[in-house]
Amino acid sequence: MADSDASHISQRIDELREVVRQRDPELLAERTASQFAVDGESKGTFQLELWGRPVTVSFPDLVAREAANQQALSVSNQALLMYYFHTADGMPSARKWVSFSELPDGRFYDQAYQGYTGGELRRSFADNLEAFQAAIELLGGEALPPDVSGLMGALSFRFWALPRVPLLTVAWPGDEDFPSAYQILFDAAVPHYLPTDVCAILGSMLARRLSAKRPITPLSGGGG
């Protein structure tokens, strides 16, 4: 990350913090599905999970840390959590999966998004769906049957980036005519929790995390 980019992100995080700290922490906890524990007068700590691992967010300074050792999170994860706390309004899940192109202004950036999400997974796993499922298991993805995901003929796995932000990683097995295809979808309520450009970053994060878990040794039964 260039110094200018880091400076811009840090400035944006400070702007978001300034807005969020003006809000009632109990209301923030309700909207973000986090737990708020009071530490003293006008102070406290939010507890929630980021990609399945426990983290804390102090209030009112709003610094995110690993729950286990209280080490501060990366700048990108600080930004993600602040956007979440800034945007969350408590809207229930829509129970409907949508593509990035269906998000507000998403279709203008959909080609790029597919390149670094579904395209990234295609480059990493090709037709080796056994390796893909092994990576899913390592990251704790939850398999959803077609009657739940609504996607017939696909392998679907749900991940929780944040308490109210699920993502669905989907693989369509290939055949002799078409290669396997991959996509990362969102719950239709996600605009109530994150801006579209942050959703794009979230999808990219998940694709990279899965690619990093690809088994080094080829698994039996997989394609090229």
The CATH C-level name of the largest domain is Alpha Beta
Largest sheet: 5 strands, antiparallel
What fraction of the residues are assigned to beta strands by DSSP?
15-25%
Count every beta strand, where a strand is a DSSP E run of 2 or more residues.
9
Per CATH, the architecture of the largest domain is 2-Layer Sandwich
Determine the structural class based on helices, strands and strand pairing: alpha+beta
Low-confidence stretches: 220-224
The residue fraction in helices comes out at: 25-40%
Total domains: 2
Order of helices and strands: HHEEEEHEHHHEHEEEH
Amino- and carboxy-terminal Cα gap:
33 Å
Average pLDDT over all residues: 93
Number of helices: 8
Strand order of the largest sheet: 5-9-8-7-6
- Cα radius of gyration in angstroms: 19 Å
Shape: elongated
Under CATH, the topology of the largest domain can be stated as TATA-Binding Protein
Describe this structure in a few short sentences.
This protein has 224 residues and is of the alpha+beta class.
Report on this model:
With 224 residues, the protein is α+β, with helices and mostly antiparallel strands. It has 2 domains: 3-87, no CATH class; 97-212, TATA-Binding Protein (2-Layer Sandwich), CATH 3.30.310. It has helices at 3-20, 25-32, 75-87, 110-116, 118-125, 129-139, 146-149, 196-212; strands at residues 35-40, 43-50, 53-59, 64-66, 97-98, 142-144, 155-162, 165-172, 181-187. The strands form 2 sheets. It has a 5-stranded antiparallel sheet. It has a 4-stranded antiparallel sheet with strand order 1-2-3-4, with helices on one face. It is elongated. The two termini are 33 Å apart.
